[in-house]
Amino acid sequence: MKTILTTADNISRWLCSDETEINLKENETEIGPANSLECRILDLNSSNAIVVEDVTTPPDDWSGAKYSYVNSVWTLHIMPTPPDES
User: What pairs with residue 50 in β-bridges?
Assistant: First the structure.
């Protein structure tokens, strides 16, 4: 398993199988082989993201931006709650 992390906070944004090709480029990230891309990620690129391979099994409730991944440990990422404006 591979994960794409944002470098600023180590938040796991994407999970991919070991076999999936991931290409961090200057302006985007490409998922899949160059001749048959599965998707392009426009907000992640070589200056703000890294690919970590051989990650440990992610939590069952994993979803993008819910967990950080540091030193082979998944940690729940608590998003700040916006103030109640009522």
Answer: 5
